[in-house]
Amino acid sequence: MHVARLLWSPELLRYDFGPGHPMAPARLDLTMRLVAELGLLDEPTLEVVDVEPASDALVETVHDAAYVAAVRRAATTGQPDLVRGLGTEDDPVFPAMHDAAARLVAASVDAAEAVWSGRVAHGVNIAGGMHHAQRGAASGFCIYNDAAAAVQRLLDLGAERVAYVDLDAHHGDGVEAIFWDDPRVLTVSVHQDGHTLFPGSGNAGDTGGTAAQGTAVNVALPPRTDGAHWLRAVDAVVPAVVRDFRPQAIVSQHGCDAHGNDPLTDLDVGVAAQRTAARWVHDLAHELADGRWVALGGGGYAVVDVVPLVWASLVAEAAHVPLPACLELPESWRREVEELSGLDPAERLAGGDVAWRAWADGYDPADDVDRAILATRRHVFPTWGLDPYRD
Description:
Layout: E1 4-7, H1 26-37, E2 46-49, H2 56-59, H3 65-77, H4 97-117, E3 122-125, H5 146-156, E4 162-166, H6 173-178, E5 185-192, E6 216-221, H7 227-245, E7 249-253, H8 271-288, E8 293-296, H9 307-318, H10 331-341, H11 368-380
Parallel strand pairs: 1-2, 1-3, 3-8, 4-5, 4-7, 5-6, 7-8
Helix pairs in contact: 1-9, 4-5, 7-8, 7-11, 8-9
Pathway: Ketone degradation; acetoin degradation
Domain Histone deacetylase: 21-316
Keywords: Acetoin catabolism
């Protein structure tokens, strides 16, 4: 049996808001070129599966029918629908908009179905992770919320508890909102403080609706948080709440815009730290959910020196052939990058493991990150019977 399924089609590159937009299809193109040059597509543990656009009925499991109709209409006419977030600077209208966004949904749902059925342990959609889209509106480069659709499909197939872990620099607000009152879904987002970054939400005190208290977990980190502090925050919150929730499947979003070179955010989390966090999520899936793990892409706008390295590593991690630290990147890929972008790519993948300090080593009240961690733990941990200071 293949260990992992990678959903991929060149048609996914049609999710294209036009020249100059940060959500450039080159992010995916360069990633898949690197995946191929590293030989990952030839690994017996990995299968690659094509995907067609999702039906309206599937998209409407997490979106209003009127909104889906509005997306189709805007794509056909080219006319904006600003009430629904279509035709804004973030989400310009383009002719392939509905089909391109629906294909992302189909890919993430296919990954969820394959994982739940046991055909594979892990599913990967690097083109997915469009976590800002709301039930009735586009937001933040996201037309349809494929991450929410994957979670919903797992529920519809019989899952009683699904954990969603979001490591993007931006708060996973759309997924959180869709499942705000659903106690079957735990949403955990580790992101830059919304007071300093879009979408302006995700405070530590936002912990879920009245029917689902404690199932929304938000770690809002200050700008300039580095990899060591970021890993401390992830470790201090994510494993404890996910373990207590006991999910039957984990869906994770691996937007890599927390990197210091990303032009849209203010965190400073290197490739090595992001690779470590992906390994931790992978390990949790095996520990808690019989390996059932759906891993998605997301944000990430340092197109050459960050995105391909993080997401190729994610594919390798899911395929159980993790890439070694300091791996020399293929010369053929580096030449392609130079020809396509005119930029000078990295020569090696990343350094070794980042040294970080565990929460058990003590709380520092003078540290901004520690204060952010403790705020989250104080708001959420008692709901789960955990000690904010020691667990």
